[in-house]
Amino acid sequence: MASGTNYLQEYEQAEKAYQEGNFPHAAEIIDRLAEEFGDNPNVLLLKGHIHFAGFQNYQLAKEQYQLVLDLNPGQEIAECAQDGIVQVEQAWQSQSYDFDIDSDEDDQVDWLQEIDGDMSDLTQYPDMTEFPESKLSDNSMVSSDLTEFNLDDLDQ
Q: DSSP alpha helices (H): ranges in 20-126?
């Protein structure tokens, strides 16, 4: 078991690597500390932060934050862990897709294939050049003759 001095030095190295954005190095150190000090809420909290911010591994980060709360730490650390859980949940919700975090990659590919319909037959849609003039807006900027439209005429 590492002495208190070694623990403090290694924890500070992990924290520094995290703050500098060197997440692989931070994770290497904090994982080693977590093996030895798995009941230390500071170690678990930093491990959660590293995996959340550095690797977007939301599931592992949330597990670490929950372990912190299970240890009944002081109020400040508990609030940090709770904030971490809230951030993880917000990150999951803000993703542009709605994948189940526990699903495997094949399920995700199937979902993408379901929404990718066959767009090759667009003949079912009417030709807009045949749209009656009376249905167009009275706006003088609208022209039913799209052949006169030129992207080069638009201001940048």
A: 23-36, 41-49, 58-70, 75-94, 105-115
